[in-house]
Amino acid sequence: MKKYTYAVLGAGLQGSASAFDMARFGDANEVRLGDISLTVAKAAAAKVNRLVGRRVARAFRVDVANDRAVRKFLTGVDSFLSAVPYYYNVRVAKAAIAAKANMCDLGGNTDVVFQQLKLNGAAKKAGITIVPDCGLCPGMGNTLAVYGMEHFDRPRTVRVRVGGLPQEPHPPLNYFLFFNIAGLTNEYFGKAYVLRNGKVTTIDTFSELEMLEFPSPVGLCEAFVTTGGTSTCPWTFQGKLDEYEEKTVRYPGHYGKFKTMLDLGLLDEKPVRVGKTKVIPREVFHAVVGPQLTVDEPRDVVVLRVIVDGVKAGREGRLILEIMDFFDEKTRFTAMQRTTGYPAAIVAEMMARGEVAKGAVRLETAIDARTFVKTLPLRDIRLQERFEYNLSA
Predict the structure, then answer these.
(1) 312 Cβ contact list (under 8 Å, min separation 6)
(2) CATH assignment of 140-336+381-389?
(3) Close Cβ partners of 214 (under 8 Å, ≥ 6 residues apart)
(4) For position 187, what pLDDT does the model report?
(5) Per-residue pLDDT tens for 162-212?
(6) DSSP track, 263-325
(7) Model confidence, pTM
(8) Residue 337: which pLDDT band, with cuts at 50, 70 and 90?
(9) What are the helix (H) ranges across 26-128?
(10) Which of 78, 133, 151, 208 could be a cystine partner for 107, CB 3.0 to 4.6 Å?
(11) Residue pair 276/286 in contact by the 8 Å Cβ criterion
């Protein structure tokens, strides 16, 4: 059996979960964990080695802002995950091309993704694959959308609802941080891309509030528009779907409180003067609020619902795909780590095995959705499927 060398750039929460998956399911000879903090990288490598029962993970200190260091770290790697903030991913992709290492990332910013896709020719010439936006959503939610669309002769609409929630919510926001707070505010601020009436459309974040119900123990939730979750799907499915949209799920009350802070400008990036000093409101928000939303080992739950409507065998129907995942007491990985890190690792493993076309490729066209879905039970991620015909049609 062929063995592969993997790497994870950014050895934090999601990166460590991906490294574990690579070591467990990726036929790994070695998994390199690189981070600006060698202490963080060593802790992640030690955890991976302990969980898999062998010394497969190695720790490295890597500064993602040092292109030469990143290239050196990636040399000899078959496939890797970039789990660093999205704004580094273009330069990481260029380093991947230079090192001839297949790359996927957690992404989250569609404008950055389009910059990466412009590297298609260079990636093909280097004989590698670059697939952005491979986490939870963007990521697994988009792949499940493709999987759902394949059940129809003529899919019409796709609606994705996704959120990471504390199992026991506490005020004031009924929310804990399950990833970097900069990623959260990036999702909450700006414009979102959707497909409406067959055309790519931009809409405001924190709009189109709705209420929805999930099975126990989650119950009643609210959902609203955020950025990044649709990734490139609106462009890919233009002409194939009437609508494609994604909303973030939170417990009731979160929307109103956070919307107030948005409206007051507390997440603005334009500097303001405070006394003799200029400060950026969003950075102040990160510094003040971030620690208050951080707990050492949050018991969380992730909900993901994908609803696809369309025509099958001449009849209108609906497919509902649903995942509810929980903090894993055995591995001590949160549900957010599992449902973000594992899907990204699956893509990295598929690239290492040569199952993905070369070039810089959109996730929804890069991998086989049915193959992806078949890997989920191995990771104890349970997908519920329910199909129903529209009896009134």
Answers:
(1) 151, 152, 153, 389
(2) 3.30.360.10
(3) 221, 249, 303, 305, 324
(4) 81
(5) 999 999 888 888 888 776 787 788 788 888 999 999 999 999 999 999 999
(6) HTTTT--S-EEETTEEE-HHHHHHHHHGGGG--SS--EEEEEEEEEEEEETTEEEEEEEEEEE
(7) 0.94
(8) very high
(9) 38-52, 67-74, 89-99, 110-117, 120-126
(10) 133
(11) no
Domain ranges of the chain: 4-135+337-378, 140-336+381-389
Q: What is the pLDDT of residue 391?
A: 54
Could you identify the residue written with the tokens 């893509």?
A: 347
**Closest to 250 in 3D by CA, of 225, 272, 275, 280:** 225
Bridge-partner residues for 318, per DSSP?
Answer: 309, 388
Q: Whose CA is closest to 143, among 343, 389, 349?
A: 343
For the domain spanning 4-135+337-378, the CATH number is 3.40.50.720
Of 337, 359, 232, 361, give the one whose Cα is nearest residue 8.
Answer: 337
For residues 8 and 173, is the Cβ–Cβ distance under 8 A?
Answer: no
Residue pair 342/21 in contact (Cβ under 8 Å)? The answer is: yes
pLDDT for 83-92, tens place per residue?
Answer: 999 999 999 9
Pairing of strands 300-312, 154-166: antiparallel
Q: What letter represents residue 328's amino acid?
A: D
Nearest to 366 by CA among 355, 382, 376: 355
Residue 58 tokens read as 């190695």
Q: Which amino acid is at 205?
A: T
Whole-angstrom CA distances from 352 to 35, 101, 107, 161, 364 are 22, 9, 20, 30, 18
Three-state SS at 49: helix
